[in-house]
Structures
1.
Amino acid sequence: MLYFYVEKRIIGDSRRYLINTYNRAPIVLIKGRGARVWNSEGKEFLDFVGGIAVNCLGHCHPRVVVAIQKQAQRLLHVSNLYYIEPQVRLARLLVENSFADRAFFCNSGAEAVEAAIKLARKYANDHYGPERYEIITAYNSFHGRTMGALSATGQERFKKGFEPLLQGFRHVPFNDIDALREAITAKTCAVMLEPIQGEAGVRVPSDDYLRDVRQLCDEKGILLILDEVQTGMGRTGRLFAYEHFGIEPDIICLAKGLGGGVAIGAILAREKVAESFQHGSHASTFGGNPLACAAAVATIETLIEDGFILDNCNRMSEYLMEGLRRIKREFPSIVADIRGKGLLIGMEITKNGGPIVERCAERGVLINCTGGNVLRFTPPLTITEREIDRLIEVLENVFERV
Ligand SMILES: *Cc1c(COP(=O)(O)O)cnc(C)c1O
C-alpha cells in the first residue's frame, strides 16, 4: 500500500514539475539487473527496451559498476585543458577495433552528429573551398534533436514548429542509390546515413546499398558519415554495423550503448579527415570526462574480451526472429513484417502499437513501439532463451486478445 502511494506521488510530481516532453508509461523503475527491472512496488519486468539500445550489457553489469565506483573515488572531472587517462584508453580501444584513426568525445548522440556535421564541413572547406557544404541524408532518418541534427533528420514531424532550421541539408529516399546519385552536386560535402534506420522502424537496406554508396562517395570525393548511435556497440551482432556491409566509412557517430548506461557520445574518423579539426575547432566541457570514459572502457573491453556476448547476440537474434516468425504465422492479419539484424529487431503490425505495448507491460514485459506500428526489440545483448520465450508467450497472449 505504501509503495502504491510512493509510485503515485512520483508520477504526480513528474506531471507537475517536469516539462512535458515525454509520453511516459505509468511505471516507476527503481532497480535493474541484467535484462530485468523492478518498479517501486517490487513488480518485475523483462526489459526488451534496454534504454532503447543503451543497456547493451544489461542493467548494472558488475564490470561497469566497479569501473564507475573506482573512478568516482579517484577523479570525477577535469578539464580537457589536461590529458585524461580513461579518455585516451577509450580512444585507443575504439581506434584499434575500428576503421578509424582518431576519436573525439561528447555526451550524446545528437552531439556526436553535430561534431560529424562540423568536421565534414570543415574538411570540405579546407580541401575544396566554402561552396561545398551540403550534406545529403535519407528520408525517415533520425539523427537527434539539436538544431543541426534535427536539420539532418529526414522526418517532418520532428521539425514542425522549429523552423528555420540549419541550411545545407538535402534528403533522398533510403536504399535508393539512383536517387542519391542524382542528388549529388558540386556543393555536396558528405552523405550521412544510419546503416539500419532504427527510429524509422528498423529499416535494413539491401546488401549492396552501402557498398554502392561508398563507391559513389569515392568517385565524387565525398565523405561517408555513418550514424551508428543506435547500431554501434555490438547491437547488430558485430561491434559496428558497417562491418556487415564490407565497407569502411570516413566518420562514425556513436553514443547510446557506448557507456553501458552512462551518457557518452563520440565520433571516430580517419586521419585525413580528423586533421581538419585543430586546436579550438570544436570542444565540449564534459566530453570525454573520466567517469563516463571509465564506464565506456569497461563496456567495450567486456564486449571485445568476452566473446560470449557478440556470439550470444547473434544466437539470440536467430532465436527471437524464429519466435516472431512463429507469431507471424499464427497471426497473419496482425503481423506484416519482421526485420532487423542482431538484437535490433522490428515487427511491423497492422494495428496501432500503443495498446500492445501497454498490455505487454501489464504482463511484465517492456517493449517499445516506433513509428506508430513497429514493435521494436532492443534487449541487452546478454538476453537468454528463457527470457525470449517469456516475451513470445506474452506477445501471443496479447495478440490473441486484440
Ligand atoms: C538515438 C539516436 C540519436 C540521438 O541520440 P541522443 O543521445 O538522444 O541525442 C541520433 N542518431 C541515431 C541513429 C539515434 O538512434
2.
Amino acid sequence: MDHTIQYGTAAAGVISILTLYLALRRRNTVRNIPGPTSPSWLFGNMLQLYLSPTYGDYEFDWQRIYGPFYRTKGCFGQDKLMISDPVSLQYILNSPHFKFGPTMENGIHLLFGIDSIIGVNEEDHKRIRAALSVGFTAAAVRDYIPVFVKAAQMLTEQLEESSGKSSNICPLLSLATIGTISEVALGYSTEDLGEEFMKNNFQILTIAFSQSATQIVADAIGARLPGWVWRAAIHLPTATCKAIRTAKRLANELGNQVLREKREAAEQGLDIDTDLYGRLLDLHRLDRTKNTLTEAEIVAQTAIVMLAGQDTTANTLAFGLVELARAPEFQDRLRAEIHSALCASDGGSVLYDNMPLLNAFIKESLRMFPAEAFTDRVAVKDVVIPLTDSLITTTGERISHIPVSKGQNITLAIASYQRLESRWGEDAQEFKPSRWLDGQTFKGEAVGPYANLSAISFSTPPTVSHMITV
Ligand SMILES: *[C@@H]1O[C@H](CO)[C@@H](O)[C@H](O)[C@H]1NC(C)=O
Ligand SMILES: *[C@@H]1O[C@H](CO)[C@@H](O)[C@H](O)[C@H]1NC(C)=O
C-alpha cells in the first residue's frame, strides 16, 4: 500500500518535471531560432519591418540570411516567428490552431463585428466562405466584365488627362477600384454611394493604412488590452472613433437599402442575380443550398466589402503599372495582345484566357507586390509547425519541426514567400512576367488557390487598429 503511494508520488514527480522540461523546451526552441538582432527593446525589429524605405528592404535580406523560417523581435522584447516556408505556411493556414493576431482581430471587431465576417466557429466560417463564393464563380466574373470595361475606360481617360503632369495615380486607381467593387458587389455606382459615404470611406482608409513608430507601439499596447477596452474605446469622442462609428452606420444603412431594393425587385419578378448581393439574397430566398447568409449577415459584409479590396487592389496595380512603365518592350507586346483580343472579340466578350501576356502580368504583379505583404497569426494551443527543410538552432541542434506554445505570435511573410528562390528560381527578386509563360514557375506544393500565389494576398481585410492614438 505504502509502496503504491510512493511509486505514485514518484511517477507524478517525474511526469511534472517532464512536463515542465517540455514546456521550457518549447519556449526555448523559439528563442533559439536564428534571426536578426534587435536594435531596440521598445520596437524590436518592427520599425525595420513596417517602415523600411522601400518594399521589404530588411525582410528580403533577412530571408536570404536566415532562410524562410526565422525569429524576429516584436515590441517590448517578445519573440515573433517570421515564416515564408511553404510547408509551414500551408500548415498554419489550414490548421484550426491559429487565429488572427490580436491587432487584426481587435480591428475587425471594432469595424465589422467579427462574428458575421469570420463566423463564430469553424463550421460557421466555412458556411460564410462557401456562400460568398457565389460571387466569384467563372459565370459571375463574366457578368462583371462590362463593369471592368467601364472602370478601365474611366481610368484611361483620367490618366490621359493627367498625362505629362506629374501626378499621383494612386487616388485615381483607388477610385476606379471602389467604383468596380461597388458595382460588382452591390450594383451601385460611386454616385449612388453618395458623397458622405465616399468621404468617410477615404478617411477610414487613411487611418487604416497610416503607419508610424507611434502607431506601431500603440498597436503593440492595444494588442495587450482586453476586448472590453476595445469595445468601450469605440465610444470615445475622438475624430477617429467618430469616423469609425459613422462608417459602421453608413455601411449598415447602405447594406439595408441595397437589400430592400433587391427584395422588392425580386418580388416584381425581376432578375436580381447580377451582382454579389443579388446572388446572396437569391441563395437565401430560394434556399437551394445550406450555405446561405441571412439578410443580417449580408448587410454585415458591407463595411468590409467596401473597405477591404480598395487600397489593397489599387496598390498592387500601382506597383504593377510602375513595372510596366519600366519595360516598354513588354508594354508594347501587351498592348498588341489586348488590341488583337479586342478585334477578335468583335464587340462581344473578350476571353481573358486568350490573353497570356495579360495573365502573366497580373500574376507577376500579385507575386511581387501582394497587397498584404505580411499578416499576423497567434497559436491558440501548443502546436508543432513542420518545415520544408530542417534548420539549425543557435545551440547547434538540427530540427525539422518547431514546437510553439499557445500564445506564440507569428508573422506569415507572404511577400517573402512569393520571392523565395527555392520556389520561384534565382531571379525571384526580378519582375519577370515571362516566368508564367515558360512553365518553369513552380517547384513543390501549392500554397494558394490562384496561380500558387498565397490565398491570403486576397482574403485578409486591412488592419484597422489605429484608433487609440489618433
Ligand atoms: C503575443 O502578442 C501579445 C500581444 O502583442 C502579447 O501580449 C503576448 O505576450 C505575445 N505572446 C508571446 C508568447 O510572446
Ligand atoms: C501550382 O503548382 C503546381 C505544381 O506545384 C502545378 O501543378 C499547378 O498547375 C499550379 N497551379 C496553378 C493554378 O498554376
